[in-house]
Amino acid sequence: MKQDAPAFHRNKEPMLKVLQAILPQLPLKVIEIASGSGQHGPYFCSHLSNLKWWPTDIYEGAINSINAWKQHHSLTTVQPACLLDVTSEQWMRGQTMIGLPDQADVILSMNMIHIASFAATKGLLAGAGQKLPVGGMLVLYGPFKQHDVAFAPSNKSFDESLKSRNPQWGIRQLEDVAQIASTHKLALDQTINLPSNNLAVVFKKES
Ligand SMILES: C[S@@+](CC[C@H](N)C(=O)[O-])C[C@H]1O[C@@H](n2cnc3c(N)ncnc32)[C@H](O)[C@@H]1O
Questions:
Q1: CA of 27 relative to ligand 1 center, distance in Å
Q2: What are φ and ψ of residue 99, in 5° steps?
Q3: Pairing state of beta strands 51-57 and 28-33?
Q4: pLDDT of residue 77
Q5: What is the pLDDT of residues 145-195, one digit of tens each?
Q6: Could you give the CA distance from residue 140 to residue 109 in angstroms, rounded to a whole number?
Q7: Where are the beta strands (DSSP E) in 20-105?
Q8: CB neighbour burial string for 71-85, b if at least 16 within 10 angstroms, e if fewer
Q9: Whose CA is nearest to atom 15 of ligand 1?
Q10: Which of 41, 91, 100, 131 sits in a 20 to 30 Å window from 123, CA-based?
């Protein structure tokens, strides 16, 4: 059942450092969108005891892997995985969903928005705008295009390979994502450069 994502082993430490730097040391509810194998939640929670973690994904196979990793680590702070499609009306309207808190302090999504249709980016932002309280954070991780930053050759070829696998996939323009986020009262707060031309992008919910 347990899937092993090679990217997890490359990005877990840089992203842990980001979370340690940006999150307050208070009890925090975290909803993870598109948890995939489900390895990040137990890793982050084992280093950050103030987090209570709700992993989610759109695919049953991922749900099984997330729950298998949860069982393997036996961490009470990691909750059972919830089946969630961020393009669903229920998520985008911020409606109550069985297995998820009505509000979260942090919503984290790693490596989803370029490996899903742009509707998933829009849905993620809409739901995050509903679920986060003022001051709450949406944290994205992955590669981005930026107007004032050269597109790294490795990201360019990754972008081409994504689009050849599915024309709806591809590395997103950060300014486009930020513009849509702003319509949901999510203001771009900071970007943090990470290894292999990836970014952590932090949005904060405004009043
Ligand atoms: C490349 S994987 C990333 C998994 C994990 N976050 C990681 O970094 O290892 C992309 C994930 O996005 C999920 N996904 C794609 N479309 C989605 C949607 N509409 N709603 C929720 N999850 C979605 C897929 O099921 C997959 O697990």
A1: 26
A2: 95, -5
A3: parallel
A4: 98
A5: 999 999 999 999 999 999 999 999 999 999 999 999 999 999 999 999 999
A6: 5
A7: 28-33, 51-57, 82-83
A8: eeeebebbbebbebb
A9: 116
A10: 41
How many whole angstroms from its chain centre is CA 63?
A: 16
Q: Find the helix or strand (DSSP H, E) in which 138 lies.
A: strand 137-142
Give whole-number Cα distances, 182 to 31, 125, 130, in Å. Answer: 20, 9, 13
Distance separating alpha carbons of residues 105 and 31, to the nearest angstrom = 8
Q: Taking each helix axis as running N to C, give the angle between helix 40-47 and helix 60-73, from 0 to 180 degrees, rounded to the nearest 10.
A: 30
**pLDDT tens per residue, range 105-143:** 999 999 999 999 999 999 999 999 999 999 999 999 999
User: Of all helices (H) and strands (E), which one includes residue 23?
Assistant: none
Question: How would you list the strands of the sheet with 51-57, edge to edge?
Answer: 82-83, 51-57, 28-33, 106-110, 137-142, 198-205, 186-194
Q: 111 C-alpha vs ligand 1 centroid, how far in Å? A: 7
Instruction: List, in order of start, the domains of the chain with CATH numbers.
Output: 6-205 (3.40.50.150)
Q: Which two tokens stand for residue 92?
A: 């985008």
Round to the nearest angstrom and report the end-to-end CA distance of the chain. 42
Q: What amino acid is encoded at 171 in this protein?
A: I
